[in-house]
Please model this.
Amino acid sequence: MIVLFTDFGPSGPYLGQMKAVLARDAPGVAIVDLLSDAPAFDARSSAYLLAAYAPEFPTGTVFLCVVDPGVGGARAALAVSAAERWYVGPDNGLIAIVMRRAGDAQTGDTQAGVPKVWEIAWRPERLSATFHGRDLFAPVAARLARGESPPGDERPAERVRAMAGTDWPDDLARIVYIDHYGNAVTGLRAAQLAPEAVLRAAGHELRRAARFSDLPRGAPFWYENANGLAEIAVNQGRAAQDLGLALGAEVEVVNK
Amino acid sequence: MIVLFTDFGPSGPYLGQMKAVLARDAPGVAIVDLLSDAPAFDARSSAYLLAAYAPEFPTGTVFLCVVDPGVGGARAALAVSAAERWYVGPDNGLIAIVMRRAGDAQTGDTQAGVPKVWEIAWRPERLSATFHGRDLFAPVAARLARGESPPGDERPAERVRAMAGTDWPDDLARIVYIDHYGNAVTGLRAAQLAPEAVLRAAGHELRRAARFSDLPRGAPFWYENANGLAEIAVNQGRAAQDLGLALGAEVEVVNK
Amino acid sequence: MIVLFTDFGPSGPYLGQMKAVLARDAPGVAIVDLLSDAPAFDARSSAYLLAAYAPEFPTGTVFLCVVDPGVGGARAALAVSAAERWYVGPDNGLIAIVMRRAGDAQTGDTQAGVPKVWEIAWRPERLSATFHGRDLFAPVAARLARGESPPGDERPAERVRAMAGTDWPDDLARIVYIDHYGNAVTGLRAAQLAPEAVLRAAGHELRRAARFSDLPRGAPFWYENANGLAEIAVNQGRAAQDLGLALGAEVEVVNK
Model:
């Protein structure tokens, strides 16, 4: 299975052009659009989303990840193996949180899930300046999905994990996604928060609830969403608008 | 073929997460997004749309239907067999109009299309409070697509059809969908209306036309759309905006 | 591979209904959404986009093209073979630029890519007045994808190319698409422009740059996009809004 994680938006030709390359180079492999509206040009917010979604996919899945404001510049192209899944994308931190968590989770003798990184030195005959998703990352993802090894040289994982920078904590106390229902997803794993933790955002104090139907209409709260992240919602409302929460807004955790 | 009918919106991760489960559990089965912008939280409007679209799909199709404002609450989960197609979704009336029409259409000796209902008692190991589409309905749809029988107990169809409530007539005289071109789809089957029927909506009186090109630019009218529903349009205009028609707006039939 | 090129929009039931026909009639063939937001009702702008995207697809690809404001009227339905790919769609000029360029490119003895046209006389049992994409074009595309020949009679290519009209030049000096990032795509092939060519649009004078990262933040410019078209952008901005460029806006080429 090849899974697409991009900021290309739900319309336009870019997703289709990438999928055509995958269909040509890895015929018969299932292609799944996971997210086409990742925060545009925002590798940091996207990295926490990707790390939250990835674990539910089968081992062997190839994630084709394109949030790539530096396309055409000097950033490297990577293939990463972590927790028995593949990730292909730019070396801008987008895959760094996945790697950090896979590394943290390693215990015992097995080395199966230990993150490994290849820098992709291969270049296609035609490489546009602005669409490496189609020209470079998609052919590599197809190759991995066919069971071949990554083109290029393995390099130490530490250098990639360092791409994340010093302001990329283990959990990101910011709004990283606003969904179709107006819910505001944070980069905080709910399992890292105390049951009585209160989130403070845009001047509101939000307590945890187990589900929407526990609350009166119009009540704001936070809950553990289906991907394990703390998500801010308003019962039968649109939290982002109702509470004034924008992408990137800071969230403070009280009673951690 | 597994057909998705949801109110998840065209973007966001939810459709992709559901499709990944289908690709894992029913590999090789075609997955088709029929509608991802069904009226949000509105099982009634959605039920009339689903019933209009369903008959054109091949027998054996599995419809995975998620318009589910009560997720996490007490509503049951259903697998329904009607007119030789499967439907999986919440017991909130979403499948009730499909069942009613399949039941009405039964004549003669064959019982092939008689609606049957199973209440899904099976629960997955991990069941999130808010995303039964991925955790519960998708695995069941995949199972049906593989040719297996539904998990759970068969129960009388009447109890489900009753979910539709007393204000769910055979045809719904309301706007149930606004499409990309601004056309306003009603819940009325055109075949149930007289040729000279006039629709009255938002203060406008609309006559039937066979096709757009029969009318002058800017003229409002109604016509039988490609799914058999009465649809309100303005030639080379956007009916919803031009006539002030919102989702849920009432439509009155004159000269029925 | 069957590739969809439509103005149906990213949501709504129309794409899914077409794909269900393809999945039924050409099972196992990969279906790729290339563009679902082609300029609505605008066959001319769409024709230049289609001609820019098509060459990168493998030979044998079937393009199902539906930008069809005249649906239900007198326009013919076509199957076109050009440069070893198939195109199915309305006879309104949508396929004319593809044909013109395939014809222009013919040299030497091989006739493989010479455009040929069939007028589709076949009609399905059920043909709605408003949705030929599902009822007529999709079954024909599936038939071609199965390797069968087009239904109907071959006719001279000249008659189709004439559909393009006299105001359809080889390159269209207008904005033909605004993408998700706000970039404004023209109908001009960059390879036809001098390196020092300047584009004048909405009162702005734009010079060519090789890539976004060559320019200061907020600087407007044009560049050769990944499909060979001249595209107007603002580094880290949204060109359409920042420069006041709408779909269809004229572009003047200086220093051609």
About this structure: DSSP finds six helices and 14 strands in chain C. The interface with chain B takes residues 8-17, 19-20, 23-24, 27, 40-41, 70-73, 128-131, 134-135 of chain C (CB under 8 Å). The CA atoms of residues 172 and 190 of chain C lie 12 Å apart. Chain C has a mean pLDDT of 91.
